[in-house]
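Morning!

As promised:
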Amino acid sequence: MKLAYYPGCTLKTKAANLERGALASLDALGIDYQEMPRWNCCGAVFSLADDDLIHHVAPVRDLIRAQGLGADAVVTLCSQCYNTLARANLLMRSDEEKRNTVNAFMDEEEDYRGELEVLHYLAVLRDRVGWDTLRAKVSKPLDGLKVAPFYGCTLVRPTEVSVDGPHPELFEQFLRALGAEPVAWAGATECCGSYQSLAHPEASADRAAQVLASAHRAGADAVALSCPLCEFNLGTRQAEILAGHEGSSAVPTFYFSQLLAVALGLEPELYRLDLSGAGAGQLLESRNLIATVAP
Amino acid sequence: MASVASPLHAESVARIRKIGELSGENIYTCMQCGTCSSVCPMVNSMKITTRQGIHLLQFGRVAEVMQAAIGEFCASCHTCVVRCPRGIDVPRVYEAVRLLTLRQNEDFITLSEIPRETLEQAPQIAFVSAFRKLTA
Amino acid sequence: MAPATAAADVQVKTIPIYIMGKRYFVPEALTIMKAMEYSGYQYIRGCGCRGGVCGACATVYRKAGDYKIHTGLACQTVVEPDMYLTQIPFYPANRASYDFAAATPTPETVYRLYPELFRCVACNACTKVCPMDVEVLDYVSALKRGDLEAATEISFDCIQCGLCASRCMGEMAQYHVAQLARRLYGGKLAPRAEHLKKMVDAIDGGAFAEPISKLKAMSPEELKKAYTERQMEPDMADESWRPTDRYATFD
């Protein structure tokens, strides 16, 4: 099964700390993949209007690129990209009329009929590596690290594209395989505020504060997430959120792939803690999971 | 006896039809249980709740729903549709309400008013998703 | 046999074309630009270098019975029967003001000055309309993912005709954004051509002063002789070939 990798706009720059560790881990785990050529931005959100087809063109074109690579499946890291590509894929499979219209419109491309699978990286770990194999390759188990897995919205809703059905356990299984202790918490599938961070930053900050408070109440040392927008809302903006919400406590945030890279014993430049929020490096250091992080 | 076919009524009918076409949803099966409001992460910022919005739509009072900023604050989290006991695709309904404004070439956010710091710090997906949902 | 002297004796095949909806018969081998002038149009806009590089004469046309939009430069594109055309000499475009010297060469500078970049929905209308076959969507995608170098490479042939901006669903002026990227990359990020600097310094330092004054002192016959007997780079020479008389080196 040939795997095409779709990065998404943010992963080459601001979210390099999501990409680097993830790809290096695939190499360490012996999984073959190829970044698809000439990919474009997938659009990040799936258009919900019945008559709107132009907004599906972007993700479908990416699926065509993957198909051009001879791939059977596309793997992606960013939750929003996962959601958009997966829903566009379902649309092309299920709606004949729309499929024909989109293919006819994109007359400069090959036709696409939903032949590929769209996978999130964690599902690839579960199905193509296996938790036992992953556990065996962990050289630095994250012992004693209590991690709140943050699925957010786009990994689990709507149900037809959920990475793990209506009651997901994928993220928790992943964390256990790394030797960490997943924490059960109310905020696991709540919304981080999403793009409202741009339009209504205070309302979005309130939302993020609630998510962080929920993690703190559940006794989490850290929150693990899979989306650069969640990281922006919960991590990058955390100082601002703590300042604006009395009584709230800091909870460092990590991309799941950073924890994976640390657990597999990969080089520090691969998990780029310098791009993570305050407290992330120090937490791992204090648990002797990494060497001293330069200030 | 007064006729109900006033211009305001006709406009409401046209708009409610448009929402039905754009969303493909039948909002008349909503039984007003309020689950959508209780799970909505942005409900406190809206002028009326998610549930109240559907109720007003059932009465054809579309203009009020457009002004209640529900579509504007919605974060497309999709919790409402996953929890709705009637299976109404609420995100599609509010996307349709949003589009009634957007398709008049009216934006919900102004690009030139985005602070410089945000333009430099926010991840690209924040801009892409915000502009797709909130600009015409 | 007597040569034809009257212009009326010369038979020229003409074809119908439609300029802004009005039909004209023009000689079939003319470019759109020449055909428009033949038809009596006088250019005061929409015409520049007449050589395919200035971007002034962008033309949009359709063909009979075909819904597709075609584009080309009027000075380069030959007319076809029933071509249905108009020129778009100017399309309003947003051009940000900035201090180039102070601008940091990062993608964030581009995002800050042109946030409408993110309104791109990847519809590809821009690439389809480009008369220079620039892969516009590809460079917009490169810019969105922060790759200034790729955007520079891909947008290199752009002549800023503005057709992409006229078709953009996101209402951005792609070519202005690309130009900013090229200026930032070329001016502040790309490696410098050190060997070029060496040669320029050598010239300024007088390395070629003597041979040039020798040439200036030659008579026309001597110059012609020197020219015809000059050493030339062999056809299949590789990169290591050098002339025997050298006045400066860069390696």
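The CA atoms of residues 14 and 32 of chain B lie 23 Å apart.

Hope this helps with the figure draft.
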